[in-house]
């Protein structure tokens, strides 16, 4: 059997979450591309069209889950890639908290955008 | 019974000529991952025009998105984004199977299949992505 190689500590919570978010993102990212490039052409997107989609509770919640899981999966992937490159000690801590801050900022702004896209018509 | 295999450091890009299929898959997965997380931040920044749009000026959102779509370079960048996303998805599925220990002996073939399928999907999508721009 070939030697297994992975960037992650297979016993870790982050390793498991990276896989679980991957499974979710495989479906949602493909759905997002299909809906906004093939069903609705990207060049034809309008604020009214976006609002109509985001006012559907199921779609709204899916997009919020998409934002949170994509942010975790992406930033956790970057963090692990940097650890692979030899990041350690104080530098590792600084990078870790910078990435946490960037993630929180992205999710907060993404949620603000999502609510703006409902144009007050979600509830 | 396991056997050890000295693959050398994947992180040492100077020896890229010696890379095997699995190592190229690792490199491509990292590269596409960096592109996708970079794009996510950019995407939310552009979509933030929804905030003033909801404040009473919907044209700032519609105009920004449609203005970008009028640029041919943006259409080509979107095709590139599709290629990056499709490869990351297909190779990600391959990695999940590898993690489950399924198909380990064919992991090189599944990498080549990911590349071929990515190419086919991207080529088939080009007319849709460029429609109206040329």
From TrEMBL, chain A:
Superkingdom of this protein's organism: Archaea
Keyword Heme: yes
The keyword Metal-binding appears for this protein: yes
One of the record's GO cellular component terms: membrane
Pfam families documented for this protein: Sdh_cyt
InterPro entries according to UniProt: SQR/QFR_C/D, SuccDH_FuR_B_TM-su
Molecular function via GO: metal ion binding
Record keywords, A-Z: Heme, Iron, Membrane, Metal-binding, Transmembrane, Transmembrane helix
Subcellular location: Membrane
TM region(s), chain numbering: 20-39, 59-82, 94-115
Name recorded for this polypeptide: Succinate dehydrogenase
Native source species: Halomarina oriensis
From TrEMBL, chain B:
Keywords assigned: Heme, Iron, Membrane, Metal-binding, Transmembrane, Transmembrane helix
Subcellular location: Membrane
PANTHER family in the cross-refs: SUCCINATE DEHYDROGENASE 2 MEMBRANE SUBUNIT SDHC, SUCCINATE DEHYDROGENASE HYDROPHOBIC MEMBRANE ANCHOR SUBUNIT
Superkingdom of the organism of origin: Archaea
InterPro entries recorded: SdhC_prok, SQR/QFR_C/D, Succ_DH_cytb556, SuccDH_FuR_B_TM-su
Gene Ontology CC terms, in alphabetical order: membrane
Identification of the protein by name: Succinate dehydrogenase, cytochrome b556 subunit
Cross-referenced Gene3D superfamilies: Fumarate reductase/succinate dehydrogenase, transmembrane subunit
GO MF annotations in UniProt: electron transfer activity; metal ion binding
The UniProt record lists the keyword Membrane: yes
Signal peptide from the UniProt entry: none
GO biological process, one term: tricarboxylic acid cycle
Transmembrane residue ranges: 31-51, 72-90, 110-133
